[in-house]
């Protein structure tokens, strides 16, 4: 297998397993709770143990990858991820299980930006578009298949296999790594800005915890603001910055971060509450309630081969704008039929959401095109952090809209099922508005006269 093929396969496996590890655990949560005797408060830390270090360490991890080199950083992350998966499957108490999840979250924080940086270092502009499309398709597949796979493994093999299933992916990725990642460093030999890393990590961990723990949201947000402001002040004054000025001053890159945030705000919240609606409003069981989301993944995969040609013909800014517009249209289509207690009318909207999402991949690939190769790890970490933050914010924002509208309808005497459907419709409309705003913004912020950085290299054969 040549380096280009190894890179694409490695990226595909990494995208799938790091996303699967989150969604598959959610499906096995009831079995874990029964076996370990956990209440809901303790159970949520099985998810938070993965999410908090993953989201919080991403900016620092991207910078360290640039300094240490991609191959050693990725090899260490894969070994740690595999060790955490094995420990999670063997855990006999909640705290051992949470500790194992923390190890996996730390590993994922290095694994994801390290893999994304290979788009910049190993592939040309067209190859980066294909690689980003493969990444997005695998993310969608993991999101759709995770709950179903977790349910099957928990029911027939036991919840430990939710963690053990990661190990074959880790072994395959370690085998592919030497052919896809160079061992050398790209970010210089100066010491990393440790103070900045501590400040931004503390701020992001506290912010993510605030989103996950609404009961303590205000004090946690206040606590997150202190290191956050200190980080911004330090970055303005420091000679050695965590986020280079070449990135913050790049309109295309910063615009891509904003677009990633808008897209995630809309999609993540809607997807989180869709299985709930399917169970409570349509009367489907847990397995069947999550299964329709596979339509979104199928649509992403089916549309992915057309993305490079669209970028070449229309440019990344028009391609992303059109993709976001199609996603917004799909959300509006779902809202238009949400009052109908049947699944079939929802299919066109789900297909549009998936197909449109495939054409948003230049948000990542084009953003990496316009940064220097020695900043690719930092850039990948920031792009991933934006996506992870948007996921948490999306669940919180759409959830707040859904809850508020549902409460108003219940107070007005509406049946619980109808009130939930009304809240979900309001969430869909909110998500559509955010996504369509992103479509308008994409035309401006992603337009760039040169689609490659002056530091760009030829694709690895």
UniProtKB/TrEMBL annotation:
Query: What sections of the protein cross the membrane?
Result: 42-61, 73-96, 102-119, 131-153, 159-179, 191-210, 216-233, 253-273, 293-312, 319-337, 420-443
What InterPro entries has UniProt attached to this entry? Answer: MFS, MFS_dom, MFS_trans_sf, Sugar_transporter_CS
Molecular-function GO term, any one: transmembrane transporter activity
Q: Which Gene3D superfamilies match?
A: MFS general substrate transporter like domains, Multidrug resistance protein D
Instruction: Kindly list the GO CC terms recorded for this protein.
Output: plasma membrane
Q: Where in the cell is it found?
A: Cell membrane
Q: Which UniProt keywords apply?
A: Cell membrane, Membrane, Transmembrane, Transmembrane helix, Transport
Q: Which Pfam families match?
A: MFS_1
How is this protein positioned relative to the membrane? Multi-pass membrane protein
- Residue limits of the Major facilitator superfamily (MFS) profile domain? 7-450
Name the record gives this protein: MFS transporter
